[in-house]
């Protein structure tokens, strides 16, 4: 298991398309798909960050259905993936929760679609993750991305994923899957 890596999906503070700070809605797909991706890459935790009590309650109902309800027997694989989900009201709460499991200082790594100064490469972060006792929290935003104030509170920014053209608006679920594969996926050499 990637005992030293967790992911946080932040729903506040994030931007809308008008560059206003908002709270976005949690989607059922983000709960399920990111939990399944996190489990596939053996992450330790998946934090869903929302200050909304209604959204927190909804997440609890969904995960409970798959953990204790009819869904637990119907799909044990889903239950296993959703067991990684932890709901927090703020990113600071997620950081404190994950940090409690380690003695070494947690590295909080922000992500986004836009290039930022002094971003670290996937290769650099992969090297940090190879240190077993170095915990890292990979932070992704919903909506139109993390508010600048969150980037200012993190230890580093990860370079963005660049596609083949000018269009750059990946769904957060797809972006995370690409990131985790670059950071934790097996690297096979193709025979020549």
Number of alpha- plus pi-helical segments: 8
Helix content estimate: 25-40%
Strand content: 15-25%
CATH homologous superfamily classification: SPOUT methyltransferase, trefoil knot domain
Summed up, the domain count is 1
The secondary structure category is alpha/beta
What is the radius of gyration?
A: 16 Å
Name of the level-1 CATH class: Alpha Beta
CATH topology: Alpha/beta knot
- What's the number of extended β-strand segments? 8
Q: CATH architecture, please? A: 3-Layer(aba) Sandwich
Give the helices and strands as they follow along the chain.
EEEHEHHHEHEHEHEH
Shape: globular
- Uncertain spans, ≥5 residues at pLDDT below 50? none
Query: What is the average per-residue confidence, as pLDDT, rounded to a whole number?
Result: 92
Biggest sheet, strands in spatial order? 5-4-1-7-6-8
Largest beta-sheet details: 6 strands, parallel
Textual characterization of the structure:
- The chain is α/β, with parallel strands linked by helices and 192 residues long.
- The protein has a single domain, classed as SPOUT methyltransferase, trefoil knot domain (Alpha/beta knot, 3-Layer(aba) Sandwich).
- Helices cover 40% and strands 19% of the residues.
- It contains eight helices and eight strands.
- It has helices at 28-40, 53-67, 70-74, 76-82, 91-99, 122-129, 148-153, 172-184; strands spanning 2-10, 14-15, 21-22, 43-49, 85-88, 107-110, 136-141, 156-157.
- The strands form two sheets. The chain has a six-stranded parallel sheet with strand order 5-4-1-7-6-8. A two-stranded antiparallel ribbon has the order 2-3.
- A hairpin with a 5-residue loop joins strand 2 (14-15) and strand 3.
- The chain is globular, with a radius of gyration of 16 Å.
């Amino acid at each position: 298991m990637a005992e030293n890596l967790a992911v946080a999906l932040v729903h506040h503070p994030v931007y809308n398309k008008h560059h206003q700070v908002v709270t976005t809605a949690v989607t059922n797909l983000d709960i399920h798909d990111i939990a399944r991706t996190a489990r596939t890459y053996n992450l330790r935790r998946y934090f869903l960050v929302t200050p909304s009590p209604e959204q927190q309650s909804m997440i609890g109902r969904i995960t409970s259905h798959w953990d204790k309800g009819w869904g637990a027997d119907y799909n044990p694989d889903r239950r296993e993936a959703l067991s990684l989900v932890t709901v927090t009201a703020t990113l600071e709460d997620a950081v404190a929760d994950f940090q409690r499991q380690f003695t070494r200082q947690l590295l909080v790594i922000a992500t986004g679609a836009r290039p930022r100064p002094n971003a670290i490469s996937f290769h650099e972060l992969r090297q940090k993750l190879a240190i077993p006792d170095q915990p890292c929290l990979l932070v992704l935003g919903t909506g139109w991305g993390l508010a600048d104030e969150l980037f200012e509170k993190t230890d580093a920014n990860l370079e963005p994923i660049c596609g083949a053209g000018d269009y750059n608006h990946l769904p957060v679920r797809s972006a995370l899957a690409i990131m985790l594969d670059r950071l934790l996926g097996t690297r096979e050499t193709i025979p020549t």
